[in-house]
Write a structure and sequence with these properties.
Radius of gyration: 20 Å
Strand content: 15-25%
Largest sheet: 6 strands, mixed
Shape: globular
Helix content: 40-55%
Number of helices: 10
Distance between the termini: 37 Å
Number of domains: 2
Length: 337
């Protein structure tokens, strides 16, 4: 019988301090997440310096809770996996510094994990049967990208955003509508009681262009400003429903087309926006017609978390990839390719 492998995953790329212990890549023994949403809600978005300070404040406690809940001793760990990019520089420094300290004290290998690959790997936890190859759509506050995932540790970029990410657009539209941060869930709530009866973008986006949300976001903002200046009433639920429909159609159509071109029958979602109910339903309907299977993480694994980093770290550990020294430096802008 092969030895069980225990990986500790550390995630601190934005405003969630999370540490997890995962056994054999798919069994989560603990996944502690300390959220800063209530703090940043006061400012209408994430304030990098405040995020960094709170990571410093919380990370030791989160680590102890993760180890205790997992029911193992730190010496039983096989490796320490950490998000080294992309993300907020100050936030990344906290996680990487803590991981390097642990690796040194425990004399364990250190594995540098790409945050995006962590979001893809979250699906291996929710769907134990899932294996590459497949097409993956990663949608979050910082990314909108399609990948051809060839193996557990190999991927190639199909397409990405040339300006705003879809999650960033949701947040900015929410702010213009007077909705609280985080914008995505609140736009979804308003959209559920509205009608998608406003065409913000008349001309469909060309399939040959990179993802773009700047134009759609600006069209929504201009619509609200024009209504306000003319002192005309407008419906926030209708604005949210219309924006959500057009934003989702951009990624849904491209994701399904990519599956057809790649000749694969599996589409895997990841990232915070993959929790959006309308997005899931729209993609499922499109894929059902073509016999494409759709996978997405359970809701608690859509956002940033240590379990997805530990899972990705497991496959890198198995394939002897991503091993780093104590000179590992955070990289806030890792190329998607």
């Amino acid at each position: 019988m092969s030895k069980d492998i225990y990986i500790l995953g550390i995630e601190s790329s934005c405003d969630e301090t999370s540490i997890s212990v995962v056994k054999n890549g798919r069994e989560v023994l603990s996944n502690i997440v300390s959220s800063q949403i209530d703090i940043h809600k006061l400012y209408g978005g994430v304030v990098p310096e405040i995020a960094s300070r709170n990571h410093i404040k919380n990370i030791d406690y989160v680590y102890k809770e993760a180890i205790e809940q997992a029911g193992i001793c730190p010496k039983d760990l096989d490796a320490i996996a950490v998000t080294y990019g992309s993300g907020l520089m100050g936030a990344l420094i906290v996680g990487v510094s803590f991981a390097k300290t642990l690796a040194y004290i425990l004399n364990k290998p250190l594995i540098a994990v790409n945050h995006i690959e962590g979001h893809i790997a979250a699906n291996y936890i929710t769907h134990p049967e899932l294996k590459p190859p497949f097409v993956s759509l990663v949608v979050s506050g910082g990314h909108t990208a399609l990948f051809n995932v060839k193996s557990y540790t190999e991927k190639s970029l199909i397409d990405s955003t040339c300006d705003d990410a879809i999650g960033e657009a949701f947040d900015k539209v929410a702010r213009e509508c007077g909705l609280e941060y985080p914008g995505g869930p609140n736009v979804q709530k308003q959209a559920a009681i509205g009608e998608a009866n406003i065409d913000f973008i008349k001309k469909p986006q060309s399939k040959n262009l990179a993802f773009s949300y700047s134009g759609l976001k600006t069209a929504v903002i201009n619509y609200i400003h024009n209504k306000t200046q003319k002192k005309e009433p407008y419906s926030v639920p209708d604005i949210c429903a219309s924006f959500q429909k057009q934003a989702v159609e951009i990624v849904s159509t491209r994701a399904v087309d990519s599956c057809k071109k790649a000749g694969v029958k599996s589409l895997v979602l990841g990232g915070g926006v993959s929790a959006n109910k309308y997005l899931r339903e729209d993609i499922e309907q499109r894929c059902k017609k073509l016999g494409i299977n759709v996978y997405y993480p359970e809701l608690k694994l859509c956002g940033d978390n240590g379990a997805m980093i530990a899972t990705m770290g497991y496959y890198m550990y198995k394939e002897k990839k991503g091993f780093a020294g104590l000179d590992l430096a955070p990289n806030p802008n890792i190329p998607l390719q």
